[in-house]
Design brief:
Pathway: Metabolic intermediate biosynthesis; 5-phospho-alpha-D-ribose 1-diphosphate biosynthesis; 5-phospho-alpha-D-ribose 1-diphosphate from D-ribose 5-phosphate (route I): step 1/1. Homohexamer. This is Ribose-phosphate pyrophosphokinase. Keywords: ATP-binding, Cytoplasm, Kinase, Magnesium, Metal-binding, Nucleotide biosynthesis, Nucleotide-binding, Transferase. The structure is a single chain. By secondary structure, the chain is an alpha/beta fold. The protein has eight helices and 14 strands. The protein has a seven-stranded mixed β-sheet with strand order 10-9-8-11-12-13-14, with helices on both faces. Helix 1 crosses helix 8 and helix 2 packs parallel to helix 3. It is globular, with a radius of gyration of 20 Å.
Length: 309
């Protein structure tokens, strides 16, 4: 088994390799002055089971292209099997035709990965779970729920009777419901209207949050608009302490500024991307989760146990 890291998130790749008790495979991954990616595997991987760790987070196009080049290099070096380990799957929000004459880019990415030579994909918390069906190869779809819930209960919330799980929009109800079921708590929903890509108007709460601690859950946040707008409405409706838990904290400077001004006490997110940091951010490691999944894939054993809380 060989673990190879791209340049998107080398620390996560190193942590996963450490969990497995393996060194990272010796590989040169660099960029020419004109922006072209170049990869050279500097040790033999002939007949090896290769796992390439590369979330396709911003800069998305560069990281995706680099992953494709790495896959081609590994395939031509005669690896026996190639697994693309993508903790964050870029372009996942472009999963359907919601307007005339627009692409389904998440399907295009699936085609590109398969054409490049990927035999299997390991990812986590896709924006839409049905993206697994875009692939003609096996996809192992992990969830961060157990990791985030463990951190929440260990550090912040001990009284589950006073906790309410909140979906910050209608589209996230299914995800929030899974959190509520696992914690045995009530569910509430914030109704919102999106004004632009970065502006959101949250205007109503469905459910009782008065005097309750709440945790808003979502698959990802980038600008923080949805979470911060929802938090303001929850506070108006009498919520006590407000937390947020997201799988992918693709945070930009705007998000960190909004968090600083919002009533959100802490934002819990995985380290699936390197942008998950800030004064109010708790980054929870998913390296043990992915290491166990990689070991199970290598051993051809089940990954079902990784979904248990």
């Amino acid at each position: 088994m060989k673990i190879i890291s791209g340049t998107a998130h080398p620390q996560l790749a190193k942590d996963i390799a450490n969990e497995l008790g393996l060194p990272l495979c010796d590989a040169m991954v660099t960029t020419f002055p004109d922006g072209e990616s170049f990869v050279q595997i500097e040790e033999s991987i002939r007949g090896e089971d290769v796992f390439i760790v590369q979330p396709t987070c911003p800069p998305t196009n560069h990281n995706l292209m680099e992953l494709l080049v790495m896959v081609d290099a590994v395939r031509r070096a005669s690896a026996s099997r190639i697994t693309a380990v993508m903790p964050f799957y870029g372009y996942a929000r472009q999963d359907r035709k919601d307007k005339p004459r627009v692409p389904i880019t998440s399907k295009l990415v699936a085609n590109l990965l398969t054409a490049a030579g990927v035999n299997r994909v390991l990812t986590m918390d896709l924006h839409a779970a049905q993206i697994q069906g875009f692939f003609e190869i096996p996809v192992d779809h992990l969830v961060s729920v157990p990791v985030l819930i463990h951190h929440l209960r260990e550090h912040y919330v001990t009284d589950l009777d006073n906790l309410v799980v909140v979906s910050p929009d209608i589209g996230g109800v299914k995800n929030a419901k899974s959190y509520a079921n696992l914690l045995g708590t009530q569910l509430a929903i914030v109704a919102k209207q999106r004004i632009s890509a970065t502006e959101v108007d949250a205007h109503a709460v469905i459910g009782d949050v008065a005097g309750k601690d709440v945790i808003m859950v979502d698959d990802m946040t980038e600008s923080g608009g949805t979470l911060c707008a929802a938090a303001a409405v929850l506070k108006e409706h009498g919520a006590a302490r407000i937390f947020a838990g997201v799988s992918h904290g693709v945070l930009n400077d705007t998000a960190r500024e909004r968090l600083a001004k919002s009533p959100i006490e802490r934002l819990l997110c995985s380290d699936s991307v390197p942008m998950a940091w800030g004064e109010q951010v708790d980054t929870v490691s998913i390296a043990p989760l992915f290491a166990k999944a990689i070991q199970s894939i290598h051993d051809n054993s089940s990954v079902t146990h990784l979904f248990e809380v």
